[in-house]
Design brief:
Elements (H helix, E strand, L loop, with lengths): L1 E5 L2 E4 L4 E8 L6 E8 L6 E7 L5 E3 L7 E6 L4 E6 L8 E9 L12 E2 L3 E6 L1
C-alpha cells in the first residue's frame, strides 16, 4: 500500500485548502481511510475518517462542520476539504489507511501512512 498526500500550503485564516491522498497497491474497498495531523511539539491527532466503501464519516470535534472527508473511486484518492481555517489548524497532515471494519481515532490503529503535507494558517 502506498499513500501520497499533497495539497498543503500557506493560507490566511478563514481560507480553504483541499488535501489529496492518492492510494495505490491494493483494492481499498475494505479499508478505513483517515486523516491525522501533527503540530510542532504535539502528538499526532485524529482529524477525520471514512470507510472507503462509503457511508458514515467521522470527525474530531475541533474540525466538525469545517472539514469534509470524501473519496473518488475512479481516481483512488481521498480528499480532505478544509474550510474556515484557523491558525490552530497549522500542522503536518497525514493520510492513513487500515484494513478494518472498525473506524478508530488513534494513530496506532492504522497500518499505512503517507508522507505528510504541511498546512500553515496565518492569522
Amino acid at each position: 500500500v502506498q499513500l501520497q498526500a499533497s495539497g498543503g500550503g500557506l493560507v490566511q485564516a478563514g481560507g480553504s485548502l483541499r488535501l489529496s491522498c492518492a492510494a495505490s497497491g491494493r483494492t481499498f474497498s475494505s479499508y478505513v481511510m483517515g486523516w491525522f495531523r501533527q503540530a510542532p511539539g504535539k502528538e499526532r491527532e485524529f482529524v477525520a475518517a471514512m470507510y472507503w466503501s462509503g457511508g458514515s464519516t467521522f470527525y474530531a470535534a475541533s474540525v466538525k462542520g469545517r472539514f469534509t472527508i470524501s473519496r473518488d473511486n475512479a481516481k483512488n484518492t481521498v480528499y480532505l476539504q478544509m474550510n474556515s481555517l484557523k491558525p490552530e489548524d497549522t500542522a503536518v497532515y497525514y493520510c492513513a489507511a487500515d484494513y478494518t471494519r472498525v473506524v478508530v481515532t488513534t494513530p496506532r490503529g492504522y497500518d499505512y501512512w503517507g508522507q505528510g503535507t504541511l498546512v500553515t494558517v496565518s492569522s
